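I have been asked to look over a protein record a colleague put together. Alongside the sequence sits a line of tokens, each denoting a local backbone shape. I have pasted the whole thing underneath without changing anything:
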Amino acid sequence: MLDGTALNTPAMGRARRDLSILAGTPVAPPFLIRIADDAPALSAYRALRHHEFVERQDLFDGTDHDDADDDPRTVVLVATAPDGTVIGGVRLAANCADDIGWWSGSRLVVADVAHATGIGAALVRAACAHVESAGVLRFDATVQDRHAPMFLGLGWQDRGAGPTIRGRAHRRMLWPIHQIQRTADATKALLAEVLAPLGAQPGGLGPSGFRGDDGAPVPESDIIAACDAIIPSMVERDPEWAGWCSILVNMNDLSAMGARPLGFLDAVGAPTRSQLTRIVRGISAAAQAWRTPVLGGHTQVGVPSALSVTALGRTEKPIAAGAGRVGDTVSLIADLGGGWRPGYHGRQWDSTSSRSADELTRMAALPAELRPAAAKDVSMAGIAGTLGMLAEASGTGAELDVTAIPRPVDAAMGSWLTCFPGYAMLMADRRPIPPGPAPTAGAACGRLTTEPGVRLRWPDGEVTTAVASTVTGLGAA
């Protein structure tokens, strides 16, 4: 009160409880959700399932146990009371023997429906978070009609009527996962607006047919020029790898254009001589590996870390990214060897640093030998985002057949479609592009379509949206 005396009202009591986290007073939550990684929790969850689905709802005869329960990949999340009692759970399982990033949720159950406010919804939210963190690209569920409003309220999409099981109608529900869209937005969506002043100049952003391409044909010549910068945080954290990648990404650009490399120009800045030496060491190792010299450039010490490289190549018939047509087959040629770069798991696949110079130069020459109608090397936008750029430049959309995409066994599909894969080329042509020689793998895995954006086609015929529309906004080349 104003006179200094305390007035203990119910509202103030609630305020104290609400602010207990600020005051440091521990408050036990009504339940916790965790992975059921112990036998007692799994047994308790399965007992809840049996009681609800076999005994009470009579949806199954004798048992609701199925193959998903025996799959070692299956994850069970349980809700536990403060005393450890399991009061609810949900099961998450892969839908294919080869995990292509398609999972389903099922057997959602709570112990006491009348007093279980919030437990079911919390389990569903936890399930969505878990599968997204695991790199899943499609997550769906078949739910009873009476539960559909809860799922819709949590942001799920209704995909239509499902089966009717013993008189209980079900709906097919899909959780929208935007991992690929977020990657494309974060890396490429701003380009059209930011680069508009350059595009306004005659000849800006490349000649007609090559607008926004991997490399730029130099007017009145057979020279292709490409340029890439490495993000400063990577230069600071891993200087040799940054140097290596500055050559790698430029070689990929020239390769996608069908150009033979002539040389590089580098611009390197570093705060110390030691840092500068390590960056140059990486550049030198890569230049020697691809048998292409660094012709010159600019080097400066005592400045923040910075690295960019320009590549020069030659071809009389450059391959454009924007020369695809509706109906073209999309093929992916990639080196699936190597593994995740330490410190960049799920973001950078290193297939090149262990390859010989013969292997690297042979892979670099593949697009020129295969001569697809259109080609683009896979950049930081990932396979799906880069395909979106190829399609945008071609004035089309694209569809990927998820099961046909060549992929390393150690890479989850969600990570593989959004990472920088080292060496990977997307090609579009009226015919499937044949796989190149070892160490590359290749397959026809999609098609160019009339609808803008990129979509994923799944084994059951379902099609989901990966990229809703154009990627860069630059439009057709």
